Every structure is written in structure tokens, then in C-alpha cells.
Amino acid sequence: MPDVLLTVGTRKGLFIGRRHDGRWEFDDPAFPAQAVYSVAIDKRGAGPRLLVGGDSAHWGPSVFHSDDLGRNWTEPARPAVKFPEDTGASLERVWQLHPAPEHSPGVVYAGTEPAALFRSADGGESFELVRPLWEHPTRSAWVPGGGGEAVHTVVTDRRDPEALTVAVSTAGVFRSRDGGAAWEPSNQGVSAVFLPDPNPEFGQCVHKIAQDAGNLDRLYLQNHWGVFRSDDAGASWSDIGAGLPSDFGFAVAAHPHRSDTAYVFPITADSDRVPAGRRCRVYRTTDAGATWEPLTKGLPEADHYGTVLRDALCTDDADPAGVYFGNRNGEVYASADDGDSWQLLARHLPDVLCVRAAVI
Fold it and tell me: Which residues, in sequence order, are CB contacts of 28 under 8 Å at separation 6+?
């Protein structure tokens, strides 16, 4: 069983767990009293770099990095992510930190609120606004969702450094095929049941996107009502929610090695945000959404109310894969066998906002 680093961002700090010889240990929390909305584990360099988007009620949001697995942290002397003065905007939080593939060493993307994409060329120490998305002609019609207006998902393509896909709450999916110079809405087939026109060009409330391990043109999307799949890199989408107890939810993750395999955590409804049927269940597909199976072994059997947020479900890069989720009850669960069985790693943590894991 490989050694694994697990990062858990919460409403009150970052918790880092390490699995060694099959046993888990957690450090004392870093960034106490800060909400940690985003974490990335960048393994492209000589050693892993951890990136954290923290949000201090006193000092405001910032991006920190560590090159010794979280023992020491560095904050840039100047804000890493800052809106240019001419935008008239100020950073509220960093929702996403996404290292690009190997073909783009040093490149890290940050998705923010207000909804914007930033690009770093120095491993996440400084970022520059991607202006064409910020200045997109549809922006004036973007409407904040319940969680604000944010770029919360970034998907890159290890075949093509120019290919970028982002999800915006609540504007939907936008794609660029020229490194961010031009963007187009890509929501064909994704419904927006809360709008007068349920099939708009943009305005969908996309909660999360994950990329298939084998077929990189295949994407899985958890919407505000609806689970969808694209087989053409997001140009069009089809509904794959049949077989789930509810197609409302926030999180979706893909297996790191097995094609057609993905995970979701169904929620009862937007008006009743608890696990579907009040059961703590991850659902897995191994046939790209044609069928779904509940993963139950080791998870609570009694009524359960722990909601899993959009970045609080993830996989590591092991095979069999580790699968992890945290919830708003402050519980963290892990599976070391593709989700077949689970164990409770932590309880009584603050509200879990995000989880990331990697073999180290």
C-alpha cells in the first residue's frame, strides 16, 4: 500500500493526513481560523509543492505554498492573485488551484470569486488575470448563484497546452482552444431547470467537472439538477443521471487510471441539501454513466446529514485508487480499493470545504 498525502481544507484551517505502512496520522491544523477553499498537490517538480488558497477574516484571501509537505509555508511578499485596478474588482477568495500537465511546467491556474481565471508561470507564486474570459461579452448577464459567482473548476488537457475548460457558477461551461485568448460557452445539452428557458447558451449552474482517465475527450458534469457526460471535450452533453437516487449534487470525481469510471455523491434536493435518502453513499459508474452502483461498505447505515461540497470528493493517483470525501459534519472518509470499502479517518473537524490526495 503506497504512502499517501491527504489535504483537507476546512472552514477553520488545513488538516494534513499521511498514510504510511497502511496507518493514517494527521498533523495539527495549519492556517488556524482561516477558511481553506482550495488545495493543489503539484508533483511536476523535483518534489511535491502544496498550494493553498486561504481566506483570513482579518487579512483577506491569499495563496500560500509549501515545498516540504506542509511543514513550512511561504506567502509571497505581494498578493499572488490580485485584480488589476482597471477592473474595479477585488479578490474575495480563490476557489480552485490547478497545476497544468507536464507539458506546461510551472503553469498553475487559479479560479476565483469574482468569477475569473488567473494564470501563473512560476509554480503559483504570482498570477496574471486571463483577460479574455474576464471581458467575455456574456459576462454582464452572468448571475451569482447561492455560493457566489466564481470560476470553481479548471480542466486542462495533457495532449494540448492550448486547451482549457472552466466551469463558472452560474454561467456554465466555457472552453478555449487557444490558450485562453478566446472563449465560447459550451453547454449544449446541459439543462437549467431554474430558468424560464431551460436550455440557454449559458447560465447553467454547473457544480463540478471531472475528466475521464482514458478518454480525455470524455468529461463528467454534476449540475444543479442533472449529471451529464460529454464525449467531445465539452462541445455537447448527454444526461447520465438515470439510476441515481437523485441527480442533484455538488461533487464528481474520476478514477485516475480506469476509463469510464467516475464517482458522485447524490443530494436529496436543492431545497433539502442532505444525502439522498439520508444515506451516506458514494455512487460509482464503471460504464461512463450507463449504470450506477452505491458504495456502502464501511459507511454509516443510520440516517446521515453530512453534505459533500463540490471539491470535497477526490481520488489519488494510486492503483487501486484511493477515494476520499469530507462533509459538512466534519467527517473524512477514505477508501483504498476504488471505493469498494471505506474507513472513517477523522470526525468533528470544522466544515470540510475541499480534499486533495496524492501518492508521495
Answer: none
